[in-house]
From TrEMBL, chains A, B:
Single GO molecular function: copper ion binding
InterPro entries: Cu-oxidase-like_N, Cu-oxidase_2nd, Cu-oxidase_C, Cu-oxidase_fam, Cu_oxidase_CS, Cu_oxidase_Cu_BS, Cupredoxin, CuRO_1_AAO
Keywords: Copper, Disulfide bond, Glycoprotein, Metal-binding, Oxidoreductase, Repeat, Secreted, Signal
Taxonomic lineage: Eukaryota, Viridiplantae, Streptophyta, Embryophyta, Tracheophyta
Identification of the protein by name: L-ascorbate oxidase
Pfam families: Cu-oxidase, Cu-oxidase_2, Cu-oxidase_3
Plastocyanin-like domain location: 45-159, 172-336, 445-557
Species of origin: Spinacia oleracea
Known catalytic reactions: 4 L-ascorbate + O2 = 4 monodehydro-L-ascorbate radical + 2 H2O
Amino acid sequence: MSTFSCSLAKSRPRMVLFLTLWCSVTLSMMVGWSEAKARHLKWDVEYMYWSPDCEERVVMGINGQFPGPTIRAHVGDIIHVDLTNKLGTEGVVIHWHGIRQLGTPWADGTASISQCPINPGQTFTYRFVVDKAGTYFYHGHYGMQRSAGLYGSLIVDVPEGEHEPFHYDGEFNLLFSDWWHQSVHEQEVGLHSKPLRWIGEPQTLLMNGRGQYNCSLLPNFGNSSSTQCKFKGNEQCAPQVLRVLPNKTYRLRLASTTALASLNIAIGKHKMIVVEADGNYVQPFAVEDLDIYSGESYSVVIKTDQNPNQNYWISVGVRGRQPKTPPALTILNYKKIPSSKLPSISPPITPAWNDYNHSKSFTKSIFSLMGSPTPPASYDRRLLFLNTQNRIDGYIKWSINNVSFVFPPTPYLGSVKFGLKNVFDQSSPPEDFPASYDIMSPPANPNSNTGNGVYKIDYNTTVDIILQNANALAANTSEIHPWHLHGHDFWVLGYGEGKFTKGDEANFNLKNPPLRNTVVIFPYGWTALRFVADNPGAWPFHCHIEPHLHMGMGVVLSLAVDKVKGIPTDALACGHTADMFLKKKYLP
Amino acid sequence: MSTFSCSLAKSRPRMVLFLTLWCSVTLSMMVGWSEAKARHLKWDVEYMYWSPDCEERVVMGINGQFPGPTIRAHVGDIIHVDLTNKLGTEGVVIHWHGIRQLGTPWADGTASISQCPINPGQTFTYRFVVDKAGTYFYHGHYGMQRSAGLYGSLIVDVPEGEHEPFHYDGEFNLLFSDWWHQSVHEQEVGLHSKPLRWIGEPQTLLMNGRGQYNCSLLPNFGNSSSTQCKFKGNEQCAPQVLRVLPNKTYRLRLASTTALASLNIAIGKHKMIVVEADGNYVQPFAVEDLDIYSGESYSVVIKTDQNPNQNYWISVGVRGRQPKTPPALTILNYKKIPSSKLPSISPPITPAWNDYNHSKSFTKSIFSLMGSPTPPASYDRRLLFLNTQNRIDGYIKWSINNVSFVFPPTPYLGSVKFGLKNVFDQSSPPEDFPASYDIMSPPANPNSNTGNGVYKIDYNTTVDIILQNANALAANTSEIHPWHLHGHDFWVLGYGEGKFTKGDEANFNLKNPPLRNTVVIFPYGWTALRFVADNPGAWPFHCHIEPHLHMGMGVVLSLAVDKVKGIPTDALACGHTADMFLKKKYLP
């Protein structure tokens, strides 16, 4: 367990000095166990009519709310969620994104992997410890239920009486998502159709489930014919205004659960100091705007040191894909003046969608806070994952090393634990790809195969994964993919252009690589990450773009499942594990 | 086992003489067991894009077809359907409507009652004998999946070498349904919303899954601005033309799996002789038009004795609710001339929607074919079921004796068999309603309760059910409800106006009441039926209007479940029966 003493004093030049330093705190285990509380929540998941962007549609909500209720807990607390499925005919699960589920892999909330879907009318209890302070969120992990609106925030505070390694007077929590007017049921059918019916760009970007489709907060937005929104304030699509006092410091917790969109946030006239990424402290650095990919979270601090007689736009726009969606907007309101007063300065302009240098500059500026755990100096095993866009029987898919992942109906946690042979492919999927593969061109042979074999990982070994991007099916096209690992944080050792080569290792950052659970690969580039496989379970590692996962862009790691104890049997009461429990095929 | 000898010679005056008589056939057991075949079917249920009424939507199909494949079998055949759920997140079941499932109540395909929903990716095998010739169909019985398009025809022929009790040269099969442009997922949310969002009238009526929404087969249909349809013939919404030869006799098999609409069919210039209802032979009688309610099936025979140089419209329109849906049309085409030649005579006009006398006249003309089984002379138990429209917490529901049915997640077949106490209401629901209840007015106290207790029926007893209609919540409104019983046919003893009284028994038809599985109650009226409870199982009896069942309009009969043997355990691997099988709550 490493400690860090007044480490912020060594921070990088762009760091702003109003940060209050906080010293001598153990970073990796700030668990005030004596204070730990059990937090019991009873949630009903159901569809309901809602107007996230002022157009009424059906959303998946929790206890009548969209987004779902925010969970707020302290490090060490035990979260119990009795989740009742009130949907008509659909199963449901919830994944607690960023929570590593140390010792509770059955509570990870991944259908087909950690558990069976919870059937309509039934209740499943998620029980897990939140062991690390940070900004997290939760979301559906079955079909495209995340896209349907099944998400909410999960905030873990340091133990009572302890402090974060930075000061702030108040905080705001912004969960970003994207929203389509077409139902996810239709989207899903389109993704499995021949020819593919792609979901297209979202109609609206949402902040805390609120956006504006048929009106704009801006009186004259671009060339849009949208009229200005008229809000009384209690509309479901009215923006949440951030009301601040002058000359204070505020923490903004930012998280993205978008189905597709990579985002960029900026606040007029206010720099942001990045202090946390995915529940891990980072070496603070200042930015004018911040990229956030689906699956990521950040904390930034801002100082309200601007003219308090003005309001300021907060703007969130699309990066990485040619945007057809207007930016999401809200107001940073200095409380002295009414929030209805329009800012005198235009909203910040989102950087050009394909200005990847801007994106890379931001991403490569993220380092762990001094004193954070550092990676082992070497790896025991390296997996090279080439992602390609492919065709299977004329259907368009995404594949890893030419295998497009399909979910089996029996959860891996059970089928691996009990050694069931007929549930998933028993051969291990490829560990790398042909050295001759031309990543700069569309695949010479675009045909791929489906599969659902697992990468069996040895306990307590150090694993490197090199994510290798490539050209998609269309010429001159390579997309951004944010990859998310369950059950572990990983160190991001480096990013590079073109094909990864042995020589690239020399440039790995082993000194202060950031710990994260989600990392992006840039077009035609690679990303290297390392983790210590110390948390037994069945863990997916996948592109966090919902339709990409649906089209096969993911793998499953099977890690010392024999060491997993105490799986609730109702987590496995489906498929071949159910057959095993039942023993008899017919009742007498 | 009763026989009937040349019974058609005694048929009613309107009977047409071209019927070929068929004598000395046993009616209730025409099972050529020696010829019995096992028919193995492999079905995948999935959503797909389709244009049932020329507008593209998502439908639930089977093996890429909508409607699903027609099953055609002979009496005594064993049907095996390996049903694989290829939906994304929804469970599925299929009910074989009209098949009594003698000895196989676990194959009845009712979620929450006979089995657990089949989860995505899993396969369940339905195995049952078709023991009685007739016109049947199958459909989803979970949520509103029937409305989504999960249905198809099931035709059972007499054993090879045997003959129906009427002659025909050819046959056609017409399965009617109604179709909405709003998805069933949205419809379902609307039905559970406060205030209620009623699904409204269907956009289109379909025959064998084909209708026309944005065009009409009629060049000048009413005041509609629809243009005439231009079909090459291979469109998914092109009508199926009935091609006939002159001076032949054809059997038309008619079945209705509508979600809502009561229908009426007529064929220009061609009388129909009704010969079968719900898989039971009836005393033949001729009609100009025929009412068919959801859940019913008929066979009629027609003679193609009209001018063979003309084509004739077949028209299907809405009864019983103020129609906002144009009639479904197709062509009876005398093969000598092209089917594209428009009939010179306008389509038959559907009787006025509220001409209930016309409806009653038809319904009361149905009698069993002479020689059919007759009911026991008396009953052992009588249940009076008052149906009312109610409010529960401001939600609008339908109730039976003031109980609005809600489906429990654990199937009754398991929970009753194993005596599980915590699955459904252990007290029996009311057997009747207060004698003072005023059926002619909106309910004085519209509040109701939800419940899911069962009516426990003793084995081999004779049960009478009096269905009593009443005024709905709105003044001067009483609706038609077709009630469908699973597991048994029943005799329809009579219909009456107003409230059923003891004296009405005297008019019961015990001589030749028709055997059916579905029967209608008319507005402000009652219907009396009788059955012998000889088929152990858990059997729903419910309004076959899909949203009405969804709003609570049904009951469950529990009948000698202890005698049920051989239930496949995977039918019960959910809810509390799964818990029971699992035994342990946590794995070591």
